[in-house]
From TrEMBL:
Ligand binding (5-methyltetrahydropteroyltri-L-glutamate): K18, N116, R522, C523, W568
Domain annotation Cobalamin-independent methionine synthase MetE N-terminal: ranges: 3-317
Any Pfam family the entry gives: Meth_synt_2
Enzyme class, UniProt record, top EC level: transferase
Name of protein: 5-methyltetrahydropteroyltriglutamate--homocysteine S-methyltransferase
Binding-site positions, Zn(2+): H648, C650, H659, D663, E672, C734
Presence of the UniProt keyword Transferase in the record: yes
Function in brief: Catalyzes the transfer of a methyl group from 5-methyltetrahydrofolate to homocysteine resulting in methionine formation.
Family: Belongs to the vitamin-B12 independent methionine synthase family.
Signal peptide, first to last residue: none
Chain ranges of the Cobalamin-independent methionine synthase MetE C-terminal/archaeal domain: 433-756
Amino acid sequence: MASHVVGYPRMGPKRELKFALESFWDGKSSAADLEAVAKGLRASIWKQMVAAGVKLIPSNTFSFYDQVLDTTAMLGAVPPRYSFAGGEIGFDTYFSMARGNATLPAMEMTKWFDTNYHYIVPELGPEIKFAYSSHKAVAEYKEAKELGIDTVPVIVGPVSYLLLSKPAKGVAKTFNLLSLLDAILPIYKQVVSELEAAGATFVQFDEPSLVMDLEAHQLEAFSKAYSYLDAASLGVNLLVETYFADIPVETYKTITGLKGISAIGFDFIRGSKTLGLIKEAGFPADKVLFAGVVDGRNIWANDLADSLSVLESLENIVGKDKLVVSTSCSLLHTAVDLVNETKLDSEIKSWLAFAAQKLIEVDALAKALAGQKDEAFFAANAAALASRRASPRVTNEAVQKAAAALKTSDHRRVTPVNVRLEQQQKKLNLPILPTTTIGSFPQTVELRRVRREYKINKISEDEYVSSIKEEIAKVVKLQEDLDIDVLVHGEPERNDMVEYFGEQLQGFAFTVNGWVQSYGSRCVKPPVIYGDVSRPKPMTVFWSKVAQSMTARPMKGMLTGPVTILNWSFVRNDQPRSETCMQIALAIKDEVEDLEAGGIQVIQIDEAALREGLPLRKAEHAYYLDWAVHGFRITNSGVQDTTQIHTHMCYSNFNDIIHSIIDMDADVITIENSRSDEKLLSVFREGVKYGAGIGPGVYDIHSPRIPSTEEIADRISKMLAVLETNILWVNPDCGLKTRKYPEVVPALTNMVAAAKLLRAQLASAK
């Protein structure tokens, strides 16, 4: 019985790639140094899979930024502004597309389906000339083969690539991106031919778009693409991999009817209805089914007995020689190896499986299906699952009772937002086009050292508090010098906003090395929600009061919202996510009210990940948005009308949920806008009325590029064309912690100058 893995984490167990990338970007190491680190990581990953018993091992899942950008490079689809002259794409062009440079903005970045992973959005149009410009897939296959390891090269499929793209600037928004299919298929065919010549027997095309609600012409594009990429004519087996949700019935008919492919992969974790569909509709005898029964998106140990039952049901339908045991999706979305967690509570640790352990689960299931069941391994797994179900630390009856009572109200503030804003303005006395930032300021080496030394008891609590107060004072003074209107304390006490709150909430556990890639070199360490959630004591009140005492200007209290904490954590899978969200909302509500009581007049409750959690199928949108928006409203339902509630969202497509955003009833929303070519503004041009305060981002903080005053002023002018002057705020796209002060200071200087320029123009026009 064969075993397979869709993909694997690429950062390394201790974020080796992250540090290599940042060293290269800072000019401290060479391209050769970066390549050497990458080659070592790839070899280690492949060898680990061999040792775990995986038979079909992926290659070309390693990336210096993301797999969609790698595909853009393969196709030579470089936007003209980067002046790519042809040939093999190098790091200069590649990273300019991803991050921008001193003179050019980066391409748009957005979320990869409903995950916290990001990708760089291809910019395409009718004039683009595709050319085979990156041989990475073939090179990495050969690299593995030199180690004696035969792999399955993985490439983003041609149809999903086009569906994930957008019309380039200046191209009509109605441009049919699938019209470019004929232009890219010859390059895909050439890549597959080269892989076949190098010895590949399988090539995996990731087509996650197949789980979406597709129209007839989109389904036809899949038929067209894989008829062209005919496995028989190419001499290699083509695997089409799907993941993240169930396959719709019409899509299932299309994909199982494709003559050009040899195998299909399905997600049986998030696609819980797919087994029933296969039982009802059958499965083609000429294809192999890759069964994703090991969860690639969470860190709980697999229920091996349940997964084996699913596999046995599938085996009865497709036959023993037509079934491959696999992960539900790439393991990119999980932490790397539980072995590195030496400080994790032993009972909780026994309930978990990171990527390395999931390899073993895949192998154990494949062997069990082949009649070689490891009884001791299965018994230990059953015992761990039973321990988790029976553990008293999982359940808190008081929390469950309080959360259940929430269903009796919609928790909407009684006073309309326009009236609240008038009352808040009387108290805050802000200018028109008020300026603010999103929360964090640069995390310096010295600041990280202080936090690290405090955690290992190398410095005392008094020394730590003194250092953090000193950092807050610097940030406050800088903002006052820049003449920013509503200040933040810079979050110097926080390495990661979700981790920071989770560390202070009951029901959460934390790892030391449970890092997961978000984009590029950006890694996050999601907390593990293992039980009912509550707040034992205030979390941010002390630092917010310290910061407010340093200035007469309004100081924002900075919190992370319940939906974002949920979506950026590894969430318990033994109760509905909505129930866990309500528990978190109650904990944040307590914190909001303590901040207000402490004299904080502006409180920001970030919901950066609200859109990210939107289900992939439209039929499920309303239910999710109902409980997600309700969860946010719970957090601030008890504050006075004069307390101004902000929220923040970033790096997703918000246009399709704008009415739910309005329904959140925040006083002010700051939202990413500049990197996505001001896509957000189109909803207001189309007539959507927004009466609360709103701050569409005026510059991209994920690029080192410093925008000019004129550029920012031009953005503000575009906003004023569709938004009322009295509701518009001026702010960056997102928090500043990934940037350096030499970038932040001039960018904020120009931002404030642009706001003042527009204020003067508005005043003179009266």
